[in-house]
């Protein structure tokens, strides 16, 4: 339909872009990591939300070209921003399952001269795709390139727990709904349980959706490794990165 047609011309017509949202490391206090988020606009300039176009891109296979474009763009943006230590990129399980994906990533790293250790790939537990040996092999190839593997939106799907058993994620991102629900005793207990579960398995923890001073204080009290959310900073284009910090609050 409409979006599918748009996705076919998105790269060549410059309809797709990336914004970067800062991630703060609470241990060091540094804002030296960012998450790359894709933006798609229609021909009239109106933005299409990712919740609409990513599923279509996955269904039509357009995610493969868009994904390669995103990784290449992230790498070239990083060359101009030495102070950004790490960029996390959302990667669909469809990409991981495509033969040659890790090789094409290695090619992009080689051409741009960016070290794999400056990238993390965020994987969201798939709705329609199960973890299988192809994906596991791809993940181990990516790790050999130095790329970190993060689990995104943990706690929102059905597969998260089994993925934790199968994959040694560097960092697990706890979905923002758990932080937003922690105003009630039940919600707070749930957040603490999830944190304990992830921590006891040896993964670093990033909590998403930190919006207030109170939430920030709670994250410090809980010893959370990294935080992300409007309190830390909103997504911005690479051109507006600050010199010392990826993004101004
Ligand atoms: O800002 P926000 O609405 O962009 O992001 C919503 C969701 O869209 C993200 O959490 C992520 O799951 C997805 N998303 C954003 N950018 C990308 C991308 O480049 N690739 C993939 N596969 N998903 C993305
Ligand atoms: O990859 P993921 O689905 O987590 O993408 C992050 C999404 O969450 C993006 O759409 C981004 O705009 C949104 N987001 C980031 N920080 C906040 C926040 O503090 N509050 C809310 N409500 N949304 C946020
Ligand atoms: Mn993400
Ligand atoms: Na997320």
UniProtKB/TrEMBL annotation:
Residues 1-249 form the EAL domain. This is GGDEF-domain containing protein.
